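Support request, please re-run this one:
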Amino acid sequence: MRHLVTAALPYVTGDIHLGHLVEHVQCDLWVRFRKMQGDEVVFLCADDVHGTGTMLTARKRGLPESTLIAELGAAHVKDFKDFGIAHDHYGSTDSPSAKAFVEAIWSRISAGGHVARRSVTQLYDPVAGSFLADRFVKGTCPKCGSADQYGDACEKCNATYSPSELKDARSVLSGAVPELRSADHCFIKLEDFRSFLDAWTQSSGALSGPIARWIKGAFLIDGEPLRDWDVSRPAPYFGFEIPDAPGNYFYVWVDAPVGYLGSLADWCAQDPGHRKRQDWWPMVGETPTEPLRIHHVIGKDITYFHTLFWPAMLHASGWRLPDRIRIHGWLTVDGDKMSKSRGTFINARTYLDVGLDPAYLRYYLASKLNGSADDLDLNLKEFTEKVNADLVGKVVNLASRCARMISRLDAVYPDDGGRFATAATEGSAIAAAYDADDSSQAIRRIMALADRANEYVEQVAPWSLKKDPARAAELAQACTVALNLFRQLTVYLAPVLPRLAEQAGELLSAPITRWSDAQKPILGTAITPFARMLDRVDPALVAKLVVTAAEPAAASQPAAPGTQAVAAPSTGQPAEPLAATITIDDFAKIDLRVAKVLSAEEVPKAKKILKLRVDLGSLGERTIFAGIRLGYPAPAALVGRLIVVCANLAPRQMSFGTSEGMVVAAGGGEPQQIFVLSPDSGAAPGQRIG
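Re-run finished. Output below.
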């Protein structure tokens, strides 16, 4: 079987950060696993280089766009390589091959009658001399009045709107007040592909059930036509000019996914005698020489580009559709969005520069990825404890305890109580978990085997056997078992920790190359001198990581003389003393439940109160009056959210009605700093918390 795997394209104007690594580690470990199974796999990526952002960044740095692309592209490649990410080719969406594919695809779409042209009125920066994308405009939200919001959506009340609706709008490029100007644009008529998209998203198997249902409910709504997709931008714009619309350029999201094809063509060109594009990504009517599956791995924020726009482009231009689109969630750090001010927006290079081993992060992320689009949290305390307990304490410790005690493995495998055979049988379940992108399940199974291996070592106590020369044969048998169990674990961990697998192969004179290496013990091989494999995570380095990542933000706000500037993880509010200690029996009296907000409205003459109608599943609906109005000036933003309520609080009669519960929220010193708590995705109304 052949597999073509792509990761989403990092934008060229930014550094590679830990959020990027979630996706690339997910891809890399799956690719390595399939290669260990004997499959042919090509892993491709490229830098996404077109758009206004690149043009303005290059202008600000006084560089041609090509120089900027080359410099940052080289940095991206180095960052990924240093984290063990093994792309077969890493290209650029500005390559000649990408341009050829974009123009050919556009020609077919246009020839099929799927392009419309009409004038569009947009905001224009008269100082920068550029039309403004939504994210290049900021102002006051027209819905809730929050300041400093982007031109497409409010981060405070979640309202969406057009940039022209913003109050007090300013260009983020120059600070100028934008003007309304008109320009001709090209559109792809997505409604032409409605029946195809409906069938493909819902029944092709390319999408998971939850994603397919979301696409159906959010976009493919019965009776509502799909809006035309604006695919052009007027000059000045850095990108490929549209051949049949001079002065207009392809919008970056037209050529970004085409970068996959461009990267494939460039990889094939490196060995044209053996690599044929049609064997890895055929057009309709072309037959690859081997069975093939095409996989895209993306973050959930770009789902609709890859499940609506990109499939429509491929279908209209005669290309094979991807077989699977694998979607992951965002990375949070210690429960919050990655934040520069808190030191949790961490670049890949910063992580390496403070001295942390990339194997730590690869393992931690693998232990969290489960094939769903749920967000992943990098809890820095758990990160330290998990790596130290699992990798150092359970896996590497097996080798470090036993490898120094003997010079050669026995020629006959001793009785180990069935441990090796059991772990060999478990290999199929571990493989199935990896294949399903559920590396978290694979890690759990592997660590259960590690626990059994360590139980064996504790029972036979080779350090005690070594003290008695008469028991040398027993010592050799014990170490032969322990080191074979260690090697078996490193085979299963090889997709995640390829360097550890190499070290295990070197130690035991038996390279690890295939998944089947875990099925039979190795016997009689020489043991090379033991060298340290993985050190324990130093908590001081993790603390340094956060401080270092926060330094650019801290630099703009110098510390007072005589103080040291560090990133504080708190919100800056004074600490509130803990309440009196309670027992578990006291806590058990509180019945916290998941509730869905059905309606939210202001209460006349009550400045701090909102009236909520909530669904508690089998417990029915209730009305709750909550003192959260100042934190939610646009109550409608709460409708549809899952929240937490205390469901067994005695009803309270108030002047404006009876409140049948209490909303659980956090709050700071300012009235607006009220945050309603929400359960993780997948929770259902009525479920108990605790």
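The chain has 19 helices and 27 strands. Residues 3 and 41 are 5 Å apart (CA to CA).
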